[in-house]
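Continuing the series of single-chain predictions for the mutant panel. This is the parent chain; the variants come on the following pages.
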Amino acid sequence: MAVVCECNAFDDVYFISIRSRDCIGRAAVVQLYQAILSYASCCHGGALLYSNGCGGSVGLSVPLQNLLGGSWKGSLAIWALIAVIALPVWMKLALSARKDRQLGQISAMNVEALPVKNSRAWVLTLFFGLMAAIFYSLTAWLAPAIQSQGYTKETAGSIQTLFTLISLPSTLFIPMLVHRYQRRVFWLVGCALMELIGVLMLNLSVSPWLAVIPLGIGAGGLFPIALMLPIDETNNAQEASAWSAMTQSGGYILGALGPLAIGWLHDTTGSFVQAFYGLAIIIVLQIIVQLAIGNKKSSPAVHDKSESRV
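Parent structure:
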């Protein structure tokens, strides 16, 4: 949620309730959607469409909030309205698939076990976790870090919004470039280096208006690539769904520790500079994991060998 809100105690509880349900719904939708993309043999085009939709919502939420007189509830309600419009479409697809199964035209999808004994799946999970930890740390602590440099709350909020808006074109175009040129490790490491440059710029007292440019490009590009990796690494819809479930469930749990770790570093050292150097170390670890991922997917033989051990 890219909306900016100033809430009372009741609104805090209300917002947390909405956010919790949002996370549950998004987790379920992403798993089902990635399975559908793989099953339909249109994974890259569909994944690009999904990531573009994510980027569009991120970039438009704050302008919608401003257009509605600062109402973050109104901004969120617009996206809920789009979900209501999409519901009949999903219902029609579900009923059509059910009818086809009853007629024997398609078979039900088997449930694939989580690839917990596949080392490749754990590498992707670790990458997703580090990526999420960095992104949510920036979301939580970027504005306070800018305020600690002497900027006003309003200016810090504007720079935070700029960070969100800059991530939009990155979210849109980097997945297309990955699909076009195939060298995904180049784009993975490139986005991570942009994040590292942005963090170092903040710590070296470069204007935060400039520092958020590489930060937004890097953070915006990594998320859609992370979504496509389970599809790239698997051979069918069942595997894609299982890998996605493992990488994202484990990854988000690891990612939740990021803002806590940065906050602890700030409380311990009394400085956002030291805390953001800790964030820079996390980015370096992410680059090492990205190099381990490489350019090419693991071969079917690797999958078969891993599954035979289960």
